[in-house]
Amino acid sequence: DQVSGLIEEDYPNLVTEYVDSSFRMNIMEAHFTQLSEYKLHFPKDISVTVDLSFGEHPNTWMGIAYRMHNEDNYYLFAVDGQANYKIFSVTSDGPDSNPSYNVDTMFTSYVPQLADEYFSINNIRVDMQGNHFQFFANNILLTSLETDILSQGGVGLVGWTTDNADIIKFSDLEVIDYNKRVVPNEASCILVQKPKDTMLSDTDLRINPLGPLGIDSNIRMSVQPNDLSVIFSARTLDPDNLIIMSRLIAPNGTIIYDINSSLEDECTNNAHYSGSCGAEGEINIQLPSSPKFPL
């Protein structure tokens, strides 16, 4: 609401205002960026969530600025209406009167979807603890990053247009203490059952619990000289959810399986994949950022 500290602005090319419990940005110019900062103090470790309402143009971007020192130094997590997302760091090393901006794209991908159809992003979220950050869209865990450029700061809302002017809305911003956050069911999965659940009695078997992982995870699994096979097992909290694997890489660098180069029939019908693990080393498993079909 207005008490939260977002400034309402009125210019020939921009109007920001509170309308029907939403903060609306009417950006009347192409290739224009608007950053509205909350004039409040925020703890270091928090979870920030906001609902999004895109305008008429899907290539407009909306996002959360976090760990803001000022308008020249902050992180930014942004999405567009076509399910693309980017994570930036914006820093300046010059004087306040003439800052020199450095914009670093730390990560870019797109929100996972299982059908080639219009995909609407309704909410985004950033969880931050120390230098560790997790990013969500529609309650889906997208990726995790670690960076220590900015250790603490405020929160803001960002909108920017590309080829066309547009009107966008933010609503229901929620900021809670990191330790009180609740991870959405859609973002939780348990990969490899814990030993107490498997009732393992054969000493020739070795189990490596990987813990909870999300979209775009990268797993490195050790392979010992006497290993005959490696089995990757996964489960979700909801039986309707899917776990999709994008790539298997053997220790010798051979790509055993790749979702982008394998036939769709291979991805949907095979119960397992076979291939030499090579010598002692590691198997690299990559989960996709945008699955095309279930495995």
From TrEMBL:
<protein>
    <submittedName>
        <fullName>Uncharacterized protein</fullName>
    </submittedName>
</protein>
